[in-house]
Amino acid sequence: MSKFMLEIVTPVRQFFHGEVEMVIARGSEGDIGILKGHEPFVTPLQIGKIRIKIDGQFKIAAISQGYIKVSKERVVILTDSAEWPEEIDIERAKRAKERAEQRLQQKTGDMDVLRAELAIKRASNRIGVADLRSKK
Fold first, then answer.
1. Do 97 and 127 form a contact (C-beta atoms < 8 A)?
2. How many Å apart are CA 27 and CA 10, to the nearest integer?
3. What is the pTM of this model?
4. pLDDT, tens digit, for every residue of 92-122?
5. Pair 32, 67 in one domain
């Protein structure tokens, strides 16, 4: 299978840089699969898993919102955060999810509902990806 360069960048680090066979990410309209030579485009990414195929094997990471830019020979993903399963602190993610759920249940007048809902999505995504390490 032909390879192309993939770069995943967060505000604090270059998360990934290397040749890959495929990348699958969650766009605003659903999952997007990219192979070498894909038609160029730019689109927002949603909170979700990113799957990277390297030498016939998939690696999975949790990412938050961001953008993907696809060109003929290169894909660049800019995201707020990206973590491999082994980097995720499951207990911290569970606590974050519980706090956000409690904020939604209390529904005070000054509460930002969208912010709480996004916190739940991020935490749930991190928990789901972290659970993958125990299934290997």
1. yes
2. 17
3. 0.86
4. 999 999 988 988 887 766 667 888 888 899 9
5. yes
